[in-house]
Design brief:
This protein is mainly alpha-helical. Helices cover 68% and strands 3% of the residues. The chain has nine helices and two strands. Strands 1-2 form a two-stranded antiparallel sheet. Helix 5 packs across helix 6. The radius of gyration is 19 Å and the shape is globular.
């Protein structure tokens, strides 16, 4: 007996549910999530599709919608970016978000021996991608610019990074704090550069 079109499983729905479950578990059960991720066979494509592609879009899309619907207010003055400029900013922000994950992964991998860990580019990409979960989810507050300050909740990603680095990169737990600090410092430089490039190109 064969499946009819109506009862065949929907692979897209399954992927979406997988993203939701992984994101929820990363936030609520990070230790267990990292343990599961550590043993997963993965490729660059399987990490990016659909997890990174979906979650990295939350912030840029939310900011685009929020900016067009409510505008950005400062000192009683509200500014709505022109549609073309806002679209360009959204697309560029999304593209650089995807690129930044890979750049941070390269940093994580390169620094691993310095902190007693083992170089492994796929494991490093896992850390870069999944530790960013909280930051990406917090991007939803961009829908209402007045609530954008709540995006600081995304700093929980630093804790996720702290937990994931020693486990996946096989670094001694006592070096996790230093490893995290250096990765965050480099990531911050990347984010600043990304922001400057996006701002320059969009303008």
């Amino acid at each position: 007996m064969t499946d009819t079109p109506s009862n065949k499983p929907d692979p897209t729905a399954a992927q979406v549910q997988g993203v939701i479950d992984r994101a929820k578990n990363m936030v609520l059960k990070p230790q267990e999530s990292w343990a599961a991720i550590d043993g997963e066979a993965a490729t660059v494509q399987s990490i990016y599709v659909p997890y990174v592609l979906v979650l990295a879009a939350i912030g840029p899309v939310a900011q685009f919608i929020g900016g067009q619907a409510f505008g950005f207010s400062l000192l009683g003055v509200t500014y709505r970016p022109p549609m073309g400029s806002a679209l360009a900013t959204m697309i560029l922000s999304y593209g650089f978000a995807l690129a930044s994950v890979y750049i941070v992964a390269l940093v994580i991998d390169a620094l691993a021996p310095t902190f007693g860990g083992q170089k492994n580019p796929i494991q490093a990409l896992k850390v870069a991608a999944y530790s960013a979960t909280a930051g990406w989810l917090a991007g939803i507050f961009g829908l209402v610019p007045a609530l954008a300050v709540l995006g600081l909740l995304g700093l929980y990603s630093l804790y996720l990074l702290y937990l994931g680095l020693p486990m996946l990169m096989k670094a001694p737990p006592e070096k996790a704090l230093g490893y995290t600090a250096v990765v965050v410092l480099v990531a911050a430089v990347v984010i600043i550069l990304v922001g400057a490039i996006v701002g320059a190109l969009a303008s």
